């Protein structure tokens, strides 16, 4: 797929699934066969928010995802730390220097050893420009087995600008598409009730509009709050909006 064709496909993608399938296939053509994308909109000075609220896209196998993400190793990964402090693209050639710089960090050494064991040793990391102080997105591009860091650096020297652009457009597109983290997916009725709240309607108004009783509307709103793990309906409206689960045009 040419760069023009790729960009045209991405901007017209209707779901994360079709976007991610196309993107991973395109990156594999450059030698990157395992990708790990993460984005949060709940960053603070001391936290990235609840991991259950992260937008996570990856084609790594489940063993790596469990060990890297679910076991919390990601937070101590050298290139993850680089991504928190920088924007742009960086070669994993930086990792040995970071290991030496933070030689006293046992957590950093453990994640480095884990990545070596899992064959995640050659690649690039892209840290995307933040759209707000609360957001952060990054992507690791792991090279297929058999390629050296020098070979990947040569590929980047030749096609890095195109690769970087493709990933930036992919990231911006992800921010516009509906995403349902595990255990965070709203039902159609819950989403509809929240949408009416977002439009400024009262419970009685919503009951009339949806053809339900006020008690049933309250039930839908309560379940929406529980699903999104928030305390108030206003917070539920905001989180559902951030996840692009409201006012959705079905694909």
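^ Assign residues to that structure.
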């Amino acid at each position: 797929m040419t760069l023009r064709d790729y960009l045209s496909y991405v901007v017209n993608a209707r779901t994360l699934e079709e976007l991610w399938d196309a993107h991973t296939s395109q990156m594999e053509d450059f030698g990157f066969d395992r990708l790990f994308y993460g984005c949060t909109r709940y960053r603070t000075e001391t936290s990235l928010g609840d991991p259950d609220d992260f937008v996570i896209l990856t084609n790594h196998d489940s063993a790596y995802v469990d060990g890297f993400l679910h076991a919390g190793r990601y937070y101590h990964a050298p290139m993850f730390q680089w991504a928190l402090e920088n924007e742009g693209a960086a070669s994993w050639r930086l990792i040995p220097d970071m290991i030496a710089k933070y030689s006293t960090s046992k957590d950093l050494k453990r994640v480095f050893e884990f990545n070596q064991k899992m064959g995640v040793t050659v690649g690039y990391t892209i840290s995307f420009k933040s759209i707000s102080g609360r957001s952060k997105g990054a992507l690791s591009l792991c090279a297929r087995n058999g390629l050296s860091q020098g070979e990947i650096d040569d590929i980047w020297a030749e096609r890095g600008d195109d690769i970087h652009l493709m990933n930036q457009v992919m990231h911006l597109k992800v921010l516009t598409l509906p995403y349902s983290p595990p255990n965070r997916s709203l039902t159609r009725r819950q989403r509809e009730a929240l949408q009416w709240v977002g439009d400024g309607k009262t419970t009685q108004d919503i009951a009339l509009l949806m053809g339900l009783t006020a008690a049933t509307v309250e039930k839908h709103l309560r379940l929406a709050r529980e699903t999104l793990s928030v305390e108030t309906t206003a917070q539920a409206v905001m989180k559902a909006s951030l996840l692009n689960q409201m006012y959705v045009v079905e694909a």
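The CA atoms of residues 64 and 118 lie 7 Å apart.
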